[in-house]
Amino acid sequence: MSEKELAITPTQLKDIIETAVRAASAPNALEQKRFDEEMDREKRRLSLSVMLAKVESETRWRKQNSCSHSCNEKTGESVPFGKGRFTTGGQIHGNGMATLICQRCATTWRFDPTHAEREFFANGPGMMGYAPPPLERCLNRDDFVTRPLSMVEAHQ
After folding, report:
1. Is the model's pLDDT at 13 over the cut of 70?
2. CB of 147 within 8 A of CB of 137?
3. Residue 117, exposed/middle/buried by CB under 10 A (0-12, 13-18, 19+)?
4. Model-level pTM?
5. How far apart are CA 128 and CA 138, in angstroms?
6. Is 139 helix (H, G, I), strand (E, B) or coil?
7. What single-letter DSSP state applies at residue 138?
8. Model confidence over 92-112: pLDDT tens digits?
9. Are 107 and 67 within 8 A, CB to CB?
10. What is the DSSP letter of 73?
11. How far is CA 115 from the centre of its chain?
């Protein structure tokens, strides 16, 4: 029996081996279908999580901007900002900072009270019904969201 000699260059041999390895490791049709289904599920999950984040952002903005942090002293019903009694309470921390929280919407203001404010909190009614500080004084300014972009686009 005579055999023919096969002449292959190292580059050709490398290409043949790479092709064989790629073919051996490629998923079969069933595995590919499962993979595609999993990728579709992942894309839907990501899309839904983005939609949920937008809804949560809009809800937070509406809650934060619709609460007047004030109520009627007799009925407890909401009144415009500054009319009636503030629905806030809070505390002074050991480091001298203060936290004020609206008991209706849970908006939180963290600020450094002035000496006069510290005296008022210590000797007066504390922080119950205290007016929220202006945002310029807040240490947590970033917690106060701006109107979500999705809401701005919807109104244009």
Report:
1. yes
2. no
3. middle
4. 0.57
5. 18
6. coil
7. B
8. 998 989 999 998 888 889 999
9. yes
10. T
11. 35
